[in-house]
Amino acid sequence: MHQDVALEYAEIRADLASKGTPIGNNDLWIAAHARSSRHTLVTNNLKEFKRVTGLEVENWV
């Protein structure tokens, strides 16, 4: 794992916790990987991932 992914994970987790809208740990790692590499996350789970500031998400379903 790259350090930038771990930093994104920590930032996302702290941000969501401060808002009282946490997401699961696995989803946090997925979001951290996508955001750290500036990729669009394709998911059918927009409800969870829309909470992550700065994460581009799309639903192809």
TrEMBL record:
Keywords: Hydrolase, Magnesium, Metal-binding, Nuclease, Toxin-antitoxin system. GO terms for molecular function: hydrolase activity; metal ion binding; nuclease activity. It comes from Aequoribacter fuscus. The keyword Cell inner membrane does not apply. Belongs to the PINc/VapC protein family. Residues 4-53 form the PIN domain. This is VapC toxin protein. The lineage of its organism: Bacteria, Pseudomonadati, Pseudomonadota, Gammaproteobacteria, Cellvibrionales. Pfam families: PIN (PF01850). Its cofactor is Mg(2+). The keyword Hydrolase applies.
